[in-house]
Amino acid sequence: MEIGVSVVMPVRDGGAFLGAAVDSVLAQDFSAFELVAVDDHSTDATPAILAAAAARDARVRVLRPEGRGLVAALGCAVAEARGRYIARLDADDLAAPNRLRRQVAALEARPRLGLLGSWAETIDAGGAALGRLTPETDSQRLVTLLRRTNPFIHSSVTMPTDLVRQLGGYRAAFEAAEDYDLWLRIAEVAEVANLPEPLIRYRWHDSNVTLRKEVRQCFSVRLAQQAAAARRAGSPDPADDLRDPPDWADPACDGAFFAATARLYRLLALADPAAPRPVTLPADLSPLLASPEPLSHRERKLAQRAIAALLGRTDRPRGATALRLLWAALRLHPARAATLAWRYAAGGAA
């Protein structure tokens, strides 16, 4: 049987939700698919769950990449996929029974489509309904939106396999936003769209990447936007030489195409309480006080938290520098700035 779709499912220690995700794929009303499950060195019940699924259905293939991490797992799956199309599904999400049939039909009807997502229902860790995600569906508006945000739900997308390979697939340098970087590159050579129907159930829980790697994801988004802007200007892709996620704390970044972003994120990284604190005061706080480029909504939140962290340190800035930080906080969020100013004046932790 010809394989129409390779459903790509990377997983690491996803035993809590994995069985339901696999079952949702095997229950599709479109049968010409394979499920390519990539076990990223799991230490929980994941290997046993996948082995049992492969034993009961020959369409399930289990891969174990040599490398570690999501991008390595995705790269392994893209290289091994045998279907005409690649459909993504995270190991904690669920596919609607008609998902593959609806998306394959749309892709076949529109040969210029290079990326097709959908709307989604949102559920909590227990599977209870929370609401809906309804991203833009118009192709032209999606191209415009892509320049500043990601209007696709990664777990909902289906793409022509050959196109993904031609473009080099997912790139490790864009950790936590490797999907957004790929969407930008696809939109430069093909049409993109979202189907206006919920074809997946997207699960919100504490282990979501957006919660665990918020600072890195925001950095990677800005990095992808800068690389895309260079390509639009007719320059070679400046990210082609990046093999790993850049370390913004490395002084070598000051000579890179993303130098200003690196200087900003050395400070925004303070928003993560679990991250190391490499900033030694006094330091150049100008990227935080007056960023040369407008901050996104998420970056503004990071900036608020970074300022609070700076003013809460035992070696916190004082005098004019402290006032400038409080003024920057006021511009970001007046109510929170008032609380921050009171705590600072009281000498307590911010």
UniProtKB/TrEMBL annotation:
Domain Glycosyltransferase 2-like: 6-125
Protein name: Glycosyltransferase EpsE
UniProt KW keywords: Glycosyltransferase, Transferase
PANTHER family: GLYCOSYLTRANSFERASE, GLYCOSYLTRANSFERASE EPSE-RELATED
The family this protein is said to belong to: Belongs to the glycosyltransferase 2 family.
Species this chain originates from: Rhodoplanes serenus
Short name of any one Pfam family annotated for the protein: Glycos_transf_2
GO molecular function: glycosyltransferase activity
InterPro entries in the cross-refs: Glyco_trans_2-like (IPR001173), Glycosyltransf_2 (IPR050834), Nucleotide-diphossugar_trans (IPR029044)
